[in-house]
Amino acid sequence: MQLSMQQLVFRTKQVRERELEAAKNLGVSPSQLMQRAAQSCLAALEREHPAPARVMILCGPGNNGGDGWVLARLASRVGYKVTVVAGEAKTELAQQAAQAWRDQQGQVEPLEELDRTHLAEQDVIVDALLGTGLTRDLDPLYARVVETLNDAKGFHKLWVMSIDCPTGLQSDTGMPCPIAVEADYTVTFIAWKPGLLTGQGGHFAGRLELAELGIAAAFRQLERPFATLIEQEEVARHLPPRQRSSHKGRHGHVLIIGGSLGMTGAAVLAGQAALRSGAGKVSILTQPESQAIIASAQPEFMVKQTQAETREQVMALLNGCDVVVMGPGLGTSAWAERLCKWVLASDLPVVLDADGLNLLSQHNAWLPRSASLWLTPHPGEAARLLECETRDVEQDRYAAVEELSHRFQAFVVLKGAGSLMAHADAQRLRICQRGSPALAVGGAGDVLSGIVGSLVGQGLPAEAVLPVATWLHAVAGEHAAIAGERGTLPSDLFGPLRKLVNP
């Protein structure tokens, strides 16, 4: 199936090195490309803040600044009250665009003199300072400008649009260097850049728009995508209507291991999520003291208990299951350690979450395994698996998820804003751009692991399980948060989830 450019993600270097070649192949000059970029920004501006709004455009020295100079000219022609605040234009295109603005007697003020008072007089600020490709900390001047802009935005409710990428944001990782413009809207050009789609990038970029500038198809012929976005159509393809003759045995038997005393809710949430996402049967294996608590929470569960005294005893309890979800409320006791070791040695598909991941981080010798393995870490768990700090994972989430998939030969989702998925044999990463801050609550991860186990049990292709599960979880979170992000509970996802798995 042919994917559209709206689903493809390319590294910044790929776009920077090939955009002019793609344009040349179509007979589009660099100045015409800059004109198209500015026109795309004007169209966004007119949709969001029609003229005669007061617009201040901050122009940097390069072609990102050139886009800003051209936008100033176009915006003033359609009735905006435009002020340009700029440093010296240094590229040929930027110099030409700056001169064209001055030739029409456009107002220009020095970037060094920008202050909060002047910003407060505007309705809209356009960030055309640096764009993509930043790999080091901002110079003092730009750091001060960004800090002043963010400060003014917070106090005066300015609307900020960034051109291509918010200034200060590393466009491949989504990390600020060390601060970045907090935009309300970002128009990026030709192709999605990875840093806009994960981690902190979404906070700084705000709403995103991809402007293909009429050359995206030609660019695509020159480069292979680094990653792809998950779309609803893909999810629906993997969840067709069930046959009228279907029965529970055809929809997977999920075994969840966990729910130690004091953490029984985690296993319950995972089990309920597995049922609500379509599992035929759900069993929960737990410690003896937790059995009655879990059984009373959901009558559809089959709840088993074990002291895990022998491997043979545990293997007998796994008989008849299609997939094991290990970790929700598991703990890291000797009981949990024995179970995890034996389960990973089995030939059953396994989903590891929570303390299952923490135990794996302490016992790498338990791998490799012959059967499929899915890992669902958040950044802290990923750091333990990679033997580094959480901040190291967040510095480059893409590198972290790729390293996890190769090191553990597993299907991996690195959770968080813009969840990322990888597998050692995959040609490209997957990105889930959906979701809500409502999912930032204890128990949400247990719901995801239950969905993952359910989809494995239902027989989805191994490589499709995490993209479909992550999208379902993220969009269910969006729906659950309609009444408000604060106070949304993981169990609130079950109603929307049931609807989403029946497209």
UniProtKB/TrEMBL annotation:
It comes from Pseudidiomarina aquimaris. The keyword Manganese does not apply. InterPro entries: Carbohydrate_kinase_pred_CS, CARKD, Nnr, Ribokinase-like, YjeF_N_dom, YjeF_N_dom_sf. Binds 1 potassium ion per subunit. Its EC number is 4.2.1.136, 5.1.99.6. GO terms for molecular function: ADP-dependent NAD(P)H-hydrate dehydratase activity; ATP binding; metal ion binding; NAD(P)HX epimerase activity. Transmembrane segments: none annotated. Its cofactor is K(+); Mg(2+). This is Bifunctional NAD(P)H-hydrate repair enzyme. K(+) binds at residues 64, 127, 167. Residues 15-221 form the YjeF N-terminal domain.
